[in-house]
Specification:
Blueprint (H helix, E strand, L loop, with lengths): L1 H9 L8 H8 L5 H5 L5 E3 L15 E15 L3 E8 L4 E6 L4 H6 L5 E7 L1 E3 L2 E5 L2 E4 L11 E3 L8 H14 L18 H9 L7 H5 L4 H27 L12 H8 L6 H14 L6 E6 L5 H14 L3 E5 L3 H15 L7 E3 L5 H13 L4 E4 L13 E6 L7 H8 L9 E6 L5 H6 L5 E5 L10 E6 L3 H13 L3 E5 L7 H18 L5 E4 L5 H12 L5 E4 L12 E6 L7 H8 L10 E6 L5 H12 L3 H12 L7 H4 L13 H17 L1 H12 L3 H5 L1
Parallel strand pairs: 4-7, 10-15, 10-16, 11-13, 11-14, 12-13, 14-15, 17-22, 18-20, 18-21, 19-20, 21-22
Antiparallel strand pairs: 1-9, 2-3, 2-5, 3-4, 5-8, 6-7
Helix pairs in contact: 6-8, 8-23, 8-24, 9-11, 10-11, 20-21, 23-24
The structure holds adenosine-5'-diphosphate (ADP) and magnesium ion (MG).
Magnesium ion binds next to helix 11.
Amino acid sequence: MPEAAAIAAESPARKEKSGPQKAMDKLGLLRDIDLALHLPMRYEDETRLTRIADAHEGQTVQCEGIVRDCRVEFRPRRQLVARLDDGSDELVLRFLNFYPSQQKQLAPGTRVRVRGELRGGFFGREMVHPVCKPVAEGTPLADALTPVYPTSAQLPQAYLRKAVASALQRAPLDELLPPASVPPGLPSLREALHFLHHPRPDVALATLQDQTHPAWQRLKFEELLAQQLSQLQAQQERAALRAPPLATMSGGLHERLLAALPFQLTAAQRRVAEEIATDLQRDRPMHRLLQGDVGAGKTVVAALAAAVAMDAGWQCALMAPTEILAEQHFRKLVQWLEPLGIGVAWLTGSRKGKARTQMVARVASGEAALVVGTHAVIQDDVQFARLGLAIVDEQHRFGVAQRLQLKRKSLVGMEPHLLMMSATPIPRTLAMTYFADLDVSTIDELPPGRTPVLTKVFADSKREQVIARIRDEAAKGRQVYWVCPLIEESETLDLQNATETHRLLCEALPGHSVGLLHGRMPAAEKAAVMAQFAGGQMQVLVATTVIEVGVDVPNASLMVIEHAERFGLSQLHQLRGRVGRGAVASVCVLLYTSPLSDTGKARLKAMVDTNDGFEIARRDLDIRGPGEFMGARQSGAPLLRFADLNEDAALLEQARRAAPALLQRQPALAQAHVQRWLGGRAEYLKA
Ligand code: ADP
Ligand code: MG
């Protein structure tokens, strides 16, 4: 967050920061506006006192009275017990853990205000661990509800409350939006924030909880508007950028590649290739997403686009998120392009030393026309002489920062065209909002001759039967993947599990070659195992999820996924896509361990029900929500804090309508609004 960091560095408080202040920084509470936008998760009512005699059990109330008695008792364990008397009745205050200071605070004769849940105890009515405050008689009550903020262990609620209250006074909350662009009936931003931090006690709490209160609506609208404006700005900025026009040339590499392919393109592939070629001819940078189900044949479309770029005398870079995936691309491209006399350069993290230096030099001189690799392609020392086209596979798995970096790689001061590929389609709501600035091409048809994969779900106890099935497949000359569970917390456990399964299968399948593939293996070893499996010398491949994408072995007909309940839907679909690549009927076995949660059941059922990646993505979104989708984790910030794309569709529509006019008529205000809401995140959202 460069913007926020800059502000922090400029702040006058250069001296060592206190613990709570550091904790605030960690929560992203840097600017006054950040604190003003840090909203309570709930409220406490300290605006009234309840007579002890009138309080009901189970109610959370505030009472005030005189401490009559306070002592440490041992029944059965050590505890502090005090009696509070307010003239109407008595109340026992009980503390199972307490500090000496608390004991002092509750000295008999002291007037205290206590707040807590009233319970009916064995010794009369009581509060356990109430909040206590010594007060003078007649101390005024709060006139607004007391906010309770989301916080961390290092940041006491009281400290945060004060910080928010004073930031709320300082924050520049002047009205930026002309009344016409705000939906009618909503308060100003200042009113909305003051209200939400300190609501009057007579508010209907339900409208605060479900966020239907006009003050909430105002905030959500502002946020959605900021996001829409930043999308429009991105569109305008991109329209002003220049990219090299890459025209298709007759008799060139593109034509020769098409003629040399061992298969006919599907109609869908022809259509999307055409859409991409049209974009490439323009002098504005392409910003296109190519989406298509697993196995739909995106790589060849990417290769054709690369050929167009090379025909026009420009370089092309293809990046994939993992080394295995990058290598799959590399091998395909070599297979297609080398016979046509085109060398493909290879650049990954594991390529070091002289080989790397030489490769980097060839990229910088422009000699390497096509570079394939992992994120190593965008490392600092890599500069392209003339980067005309950048292709990013499985784009959602790349950090946004990496994508931004890729765009800045060309030495000639022109933007490269950008083609992103994904097997996970973007749901409509997201396409309309976050990706409004993205053109989408969809391959909606699989190459002919594929047999749909049959998916079966088994309890883990049926493992023996599954192994028998593996034996049958191997005997028929087919090949099998066994995917080991994902243990998020521990790569070590992942590995242990895979090693153990590998040993078991080796024992159970004498006479067959069983290989092991996991993330910790050196790249060369991985490549060797993959080559054996791809070449058919190995019948069974036990793997952690490193094979998730990109592996292409048409003879593989059975995929077993252990602990399938631990995987996300899209991931299961990606994995399943590794089989059914040839004409043989293929099966995917999902093993689960009981008990299965309801979501777990829903997930596995979705896999059995459909082979359609788009349908699966839709269900995945239902189950997980859109956050994950966007790789929000990589950018380090949630995308929408207040609004919800599904629930607030009406507000979203209003923001979409208001944004263009505001940007056109009052660009400075629009910019100030985006800055207020998104700060340094704006650039991320445009990538
Ligand atoms: P994905 O879209 O999942 O990246 P790939 O590009 O890896 O799919 O393609 C999957 C397989 O299908 C590859 O072996 C590829 O060569 C093959 N393929 C692609 N297009 C066609 C086609 N039109 N006809 C037959 N096979 C094709
Ligand atoms: Mg692919």
